[in-house]
Design a protein that fits this description.
single chain, 6 helices, about 230 residues, elongated, alpha/beta, about 10% strand, Rossmann fold, 5-stranded parallel beta sheet
Length: about 230
Amino acid sequence: MNKGIKKILTKVLALIILIGLLVGISAAVINYLVIQTTKQKIVTINKLKEADCILVLGAYVKPNGMPSAMLKDRLSMAYEIFEADKASKFLLSGDHGTKSYDEVNSMRDYIQEKGVDKKLIFLDHAGFSTYESIYRARDIFEANKIIIVTQGYHLPRALYLAEKMGIEAQGVAAKNITYRKMELFKAREMLATVKDFVLVNTLKPKPTYLGEAIPVSGDGTLTHDK
């Protein structure tokens, strides 16, 4: 290899390393900012203010239709909040993009088995991402004050999105349980936080689906499968 080519390759490698460092630093700064600006909004049940609804963000559902451990923990915490009279409605938001995969009806079944009136349970079948779930909570379900329930590592991003979209939100973390692949989830969350930071502050895309409003002040059965 001649010296000229070697110098060029060295410079290219140095540039790649520099870009990688800048991207990494930017991601770290964004994640720090999101965590710091939302930490006061993550509270325990007894410190919650009353809200329009409890927004439960969807997660993996097993092939047999049962919620995964992570999703079950979210739903369990949401029910505790409901029992504490902090909100009278549930908004269960998840992926129901195909007939073969259905997060929201699995979530509904879990809550209804607790004896909750189905009129109090709203389903968002098009909550394909955290960004879309928050956007639709505001624009479709007209929720102005919400309590978001998910795992602790996920809450800052959800609360940040809600704040930027003009929703008054509080967050309660599901029980602090270590799940399989937890380190992978946390790593993905850092990247997702950067993505949503850009979406909500710059690009501001509309969700995959919008439509007529179905206010959470009304009857949740309007959102149920017929």
